[in-house]
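DM from R.C. (forwarded with permission)

"hey, sorry to bug you on a friday — could you get me a structure for this? deadline for the figure draft is monday and I only need the backbone to look sensible"
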Amino acid sequence: MQEDSRRRYSLIHAAVVLALYGSAGVARAQEQNSVPQQDSGPVQEVVVTATLRRQDVTDVPYSISAISGDDLKAEGVTDLVTLARAAPSFSLVDLGTRYEDAEIPIIRGINASSVVEGPQILTQSPVGIYVDNSPVEGYFELTDVQRIEILRGPQGTLYGAGALGGALRIIPNPPELGVLAGSLTGDVSSVAHGNQPSYGFEGFANLPLGDTLALRLSAKYAYEAGFINAFGLEERTGGAFSPPVLADPSNAVTSPSVYLPEQKGWNDAKPFTGRASLLWKVGDLSAELAYTGAHVEGNAGPQTNTDFPGGPYPIDPRITFPPGGDYQYFSAEEQPYLRSTSLTSLDASYDAGFATVSSISSYYRTGGETFDDDTYQLFIYAPFSFYYTGSPINPRFISPAKYSDSDRAFSEEVRLVSHSGDDHKIDYAVGLFYQNRTRDSRYDSSAPGTDTYSQAQGCTAPYYLGAPFPNCLVTLGPNSDYYESAAHQNFENKSLYGELTLHATRRAQITLGARYYSEDFLANQSETSYALMTSTSGNPTETTNSGALFKVNPSYQFAQNQNLYATFSQGFRPGGANSFTIVGPLAESPQLLRCQADTANNYEIGVKGRIEGNYTYALAVFDVEWDHPQIAGYTPYTSTAVVYNGEKARSRGVEAESAGPLFVPGLHYSASLSDANARLTENFSLPANDGMGGIAPGIITGSAGERLPGSPMWSAAATVSYERALGAEWSMALTANVTYTGSILNSLPTPGVPETPIPAYTIGNLSASLDQSRYQVTLYIDNLADKRAVVSFLQTPNVAVVGGLANYYLINRPREIGLRITLMGSKP
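My reply, with the result:
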């Protein structure tokens, strides 16, 4: 069976090589003997700009999906998480909006990092994300979107670093000259298992400002009601790092905490996204200045606990907790979060006749902070945890944690793109790209009240391993911290790129692409452990990398609107540096100080097109070879955030899409299917701290054949819609959508602890709309069957740790029934 697999995928390489070196000559021979075919019916084009020039999506000679703004609304897509359910080979594990900066977008399974490591992730995304032509990170709701383009496979020549697995482009609606238009939408819904309604508002206005100026404003705000009930919250004396309130103030040793009532709808969120864009166009010169800002705040995430059986609270057995449940979670404290993101861009272009000259300048900034509860998870790390939990255990022990981060980048791109035409033998795009990016992150773990508890016990001297009473004082830092970590990164990239398309005949073409890049990377990290009374500033580490990427992409139109193509493309992520001490009890191996660049070679063959009756189809077979895959995570014992390399991995599979009318007038379908088998293909073994202050080989390992985490092997989506006129002014539309997500893994397995797959699940949605030129009324049901699906989890090897309270399961949003009303208007 394994030999058959090797033979099957070796055919992909052979077919690509044959196409690269033999397609042009074969195409000429067929061209000379062919008779042009006439289009037998009207064809509705979907225009994209992924190749930096306007093309119908079926003419782009590689795997790409384009989803219009109307289709996004019909399928209930509001952000990248919901987009991942509708697009083949694109996945994103939903950790909740508070951890969105740690959610890893994945295309074709190209990811080796754990999806539950928390927000202090130091590697670059394997997917390049763009708002129009500007690279961006951070949280945005999708609003006033013209279309989304998903480019699958490495896109290094045009999109540079970060497009290792592919690229995703969010194209907003641009301002329109001479058009006064606008819309306003109100939305109200009810989520199952919640106790509050959700609601939201969205709208846009397009304002002409004379003959050469136009302004477009859009905004979206929502209150997303929670559906998780939280139990075990302890009343606090002040802010996030304050100790719990004593139920018996006269006894600071044995007094229990004051517990708050069960909190219902705990995980609510309030996202906002707004955009303003100003277009100036005079003759062949145009410029668009745009600002997009987003802010989200809320509490906790979609976490549940089904493992705690109920009964005495292990930290204070005098207190009784109820059993866990499908929508029940236990937390000793509130877990608020917030994040703000902004993107400012200036996109200017001039039509010089033979080509368009463009300059794209952009600056984005994103930052946020998240409070988490490590009270139960700290017990996993015994015996270290006993230092702070006390002996006997402090009945009011809590451990708040705070994550904070910021990421900002300035980018400048200048490019020259030739005009296309039937009589052109050569098309080209060349450009220069520069980016300077800085990232900072900080993690603080605390144990408020633990020091005063030890003092109340009569402790008079600091504790050390095996120390007798009264040597039991604990040491805490500012804000009652027992551990602090801060990381700083600076990345600078300079690139020269170009793509050249040779039209050998009217039907045959070949695109050659290349990119040369040079980059500098600086990292520094500090750690302080008050338990070990150590503080390190790390080793500031610098790396410099340079290299080249290539692309060869022939295609042939074997019939009218039918295209066959082959692609060899490359992608990369920059190498980087970790920073930590290499001496003392917190030392890590010097071998982990540097992280190599990882590269991907993509071999792909495909066929796509439109056929009579407005049917579209696309089929691609791919084989992606990934060298030195970067893996973001934490060292096993010192929990230092690092990025390290594996040896080799590979993703092989098939993608298919189709859309068109069905047998009843007004009835249409769209469907997609993806198979991406992504696995390690070579073992790797790296040294790390052994938990005793020494370095041991082989603690960080991976084995050939292990599945890569974060994405399913199989996924599928299908949408059926029916439209019908109701008289002269009104029409109706019914839409049914179903998505299937196959099983995934949280992370690569650790030695002795096999990774448990997360089960596959299916979600269905329904909507019904009444439309008139100025009004639209929509009733929708998301997650029709109220399917509870686990999307990620944390399970301790020993479920008995704190009675199972340390375990949690992240779940999807339950059934939501809502009503949406839109008012529209326009005037030329």
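R.C.: lifesaver. The first strand starts at residue 47 and ends at 48.
me: no worries. The CA atoms of residues 329 and 701 lie 33 Å apart.
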